[in-house]
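seq/struct pair 1
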Amino acid sequence: MPSVDERTARELRGLARVLVRSGYADHAAITAALTEAVSEDAPSMDAAALVPLLIGEAVMDLNEDASAWPESTDPDRLDAVLAEFERLGLVVVRYTSDHHAARQALEAAESPQGLVFFTDTDVWHAVDFGMLELKLWHPDTANVAPGEPLLEDVLALLRQNDLPAVFDEGRIEVTLDWQRRVTL
């Protein structure tokens, strides 16, 4: 990347990487986020020219890695568990910007059994570090506590689907390889 210092170039590539690999952001959202980042971090660069290159590089790297992935990945199993949570009456909010949006979804639901959610930054962390934080709330928005049946049921379902999970400091930490297949 000409006219960008090495650190900024690495950070922009890293952002493109997590946005693409998340599997939740579409092309328009990725483009918007990267355009904003280029405008803030590398204002001398032409975002319209640089952003497609960043996305293209991230997609090529992902596709190369994906060729060696197993047929069923950890995110595939996570998707199945999240769907099961929904069948059990939990509100599930994926890749949200913050807990306020998750709370709104919970409050809009009719007779929810609780809320499971994770944010975009939780997914980015999972992409890089192999651990996704899930938040689990009761219908009244209170956090679950150790030993509560809702928490134990959620942990059991995750573990039954080969997703190691522990409750720590108010959140569920799910160990997984973030291998989500993406089509942009």
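seq/struct pair 2
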Amino acid sequence: MRRVAGRFVISQDERGTFRFALVANNGQTLAVGEGYPSKAACVNGIETVRRNAPEAAIDDQAPAAL
């Protein structure tokens, strides 16, 4: 049986926009999406992350540690 890596949780904020969070099996929030005007747009955002994340490179633009 394949183990599920986590889940996407969709919620609606106080302004009425929809957001998603990627939550690990241990309950830790790993990522949060922007506010979307509709639930359908939010689901589309989730699908975009699903398609692109496995091959996404890390672009580290942070200053070097002191």
